[in-house]
Amino acid sequence: MFSPAYALAAASPAVQALLGNPPRFTSFGNAPQDGAKPYAVQQTITGSPENYLGQLPDMDSLSVQVDVYARVMADAKAITVALRDAFEPAGYVTSWNGEFFEADTKLWRISFTVDFKIPR
After folding, report:
1. Using CB atoms within 10 A of its CB, is residue 40 exposed (0-12), middle (13-18) or buried (19+)?
2. Which residues contact 102 (CB under 8 A, 6 or more apart)?
3. Is 3 left (phi over 0), alpha (psi -120 to 50) or beta?
């Protein structure tokens, strides 16, 4: 029901090396406008319980979109790799959503989606 993405990122030494400790990884819309760069944000984009006939669900499925922001594309790529590696023991990257230059903020953004199955 709730994303494990932050806990996984916070436990990763590679993510900490790139995003700090605690990592600058927050929910979508909560990154401080004048905060430190680079950073990443997450948002659950869809989810559902694993429903069965004759019994209660025993897990929930979540799709979480992650967006990485950095001043330099190479930094955005390194953070994306570190986050991917932190998430994959517990979930699956299901889509690479693109690489963008945000003209307003002058930051590079890489977006991807991770699916998690979370036992209840």
Report:
1. buried
2. 69, 108, 109
3. beta
Cα gap 79→67, rounded to integer Å: 10
What pTM was computed for the model? 0.92
Neighbours of 34 (CB within 10 A): 5
- What is residue 94's three-state secondary structure? strand
Phi, psi of 100 (to 5 degrees): -140, 155
- CA 107, CA 27: separation in Å to the nearest integer? 18
**pLDDT per residue of the chain (120 residues) written in tens, 0 to 9:** 899 999 999 999 999 999 999 999 999 988 888 899 999 999 999 999 999 999 999 999 999 999 999 999 999 999 999 999 999 999 999 999 999 999 999 999 999 999 999 999
